[in-house]
Write a structure and sequence with these properties.
The protein is mainly α and about 350 residues long. Among the domains are: about 110 residues, Serine Threonine Protein Phosphatase 5, Tetratricopeptide repeat (Alpha Horseshoe); about 55 residues. The chain has a two-stranded antiparallel sheet. A two-stranded antiparallel sheet has the order 3-4. Strand 1 and strand 2 form a beta hairpin. The chain is elongated. InterPro entries: Ankyrin_rpt-contain_sf (IPR036770).
Length: about 350
């Protein structure tokens, strides 16, 4: 790690690395400084020294991964470790330093590293593109079993899922007077594959605190829609279909009564997808205030009729073509998708 001769004891490289890793984990600066004197002939400071859960790391990256700010600063300032080299290693593992920082909530490292990251992004714009081709799933077992699929969550969105208001408030304050915000840390930037930003991620996850924070403190735009044309209420209802947690109902009321999000937008979708009785009752009540008398029961009846009609068409097709019901090959060739057709017809009725 430094620039002096190797110790005459000829300590094996793997032993030195293991000692260094343990020292970094404990932020044992005395040991780190001593060991750094034995590394110059073995490794460059930016070289990879190992991996954790398929994440390739050098010394700077390991300090960041473990959240140890003092070793991170020492490697960067004293030993000249390059943040770009660290980012390139993270990119080979299909993640970024910001994903780690935001998922694990390392605000102290963020405060130190952020100015350097912004400067580097301006100088090397391709750093922001490291995440565009990601496809692997990264797991952080030590954080409430958080699992994120890299292309679908930006670092700032991971902090949103974690409800890390302290970190988000710091980022909002830091960039409040800046003309440039890196897209990975931009609360209003839409992730490409879903078209969802922090507001919609908070709604999908029923994060009441985040919704209030983004609306009252950050003044974010709640009229935003994702790639499917869903607004904040549609996304919230879609997120609630697999959960009966009452937080979704509270979020819905806040979006309708405080934020004034359009409850009429794609209301057929909301009624079709909603499962919670309180949410269904509330939606129907609010729609009646706008002269819309459609109920979830109406939507369900319509869906049953559509499916029944398609079943009749399917049976007629099979009879006319003398297809045996057990003939899986011919059945697989039928270009009839009942659910897709039903969904598309209902979705179009706004």
């Amino acid at each position: 790690m430094g620039c002096c001769n190797l110790s005459q004891r000829n300590i094996p490289e793997n032993v030195l690395i293991n000692r260094a890793l343990r020292a970094i984990e404990k932020s044992d600066m005395k040991t780190i400084k001593l060991l750094s004197k034995n590394f110059c002939e073995l490794r460059k400071i930016d070289d990879e020294i190992g991996e954790i859960k398929n994440i390739r790391l050098n010394a700077l990256g390991y300090a960041l991964w473990t959240g140890q700010v003092q070793p991170f600063i020492y490697f960067h300032q004293v030993l000249g470790a390059r943040t770009k080299a660290m980012e390139e290693l993270f990119a080979k593992s299909e993640t970024t330093s910001l994903h780690v920082i935001c998922a694990k909530g390392y605000i102290d490292i963020l405060k130190y590293y952020l100015p350097f990251y912004v400067e580097e992004v301006i100088e090397y714009p391709e750093i922001q593109e490291y995440v565009t081709s990601m496809s692997s799933q990264i797991y952080f077992d030590d954080i409430s079993s958080l699992c994120f699929n890299s292309p679908h969550y930006l670092p700032i969105q991971l902090a949103t899922i974690q409800e890390n208001i302290t970190l988000l408030a710091y980022l909002y304050s830091y960039f409040s007077d800046k003309s440039f915000i890196p897209r990975l840390l931009d609360m209003e930037y839409k992730e490409e594959s879903t078209g969802e930003n922090c507001v919609l991620v908070a709604c999908r996850n029923g994060n009441y605190k985040m919704i209030v924070f983004f609306y009252k403190n950050c003044k974010l735009n709640f009229r935003v829609k994702n790639n499917l044309g869903h607004n904040a209420i549609n996304v919230l209802i879609d997120g609630s279909k697999s959960s009966r947690d009452k937080r979704y109902f509270n979020c819905l009321r806040y979006l309708v009564e405080k934020v004034c999000v359009d409850v009429e937008h794609m209301y057929h979708f909301n009624l079709k997808v909603a499962q919670d009785p309180d949410i269904i009752k509330y939606l129907e009540c609010k729609l009646r205030e706008y002269g819309i008398t459609t109920t979830k029961k109406d939507i369900d009846v319509q869906l049953i009729r559509l499916l029944s009609c398609e079943n009749e068409k399917r049976c007629r097709y099979m009879q006319e073509n003398s297809i045996n019901y057990r003939d899986n090959y011919f059945l697989s060739q039928l270009d009839i998708s009942q659910n897709d057709l039903a969904n598309s017809q209902i979705k179009g009725n706004n």
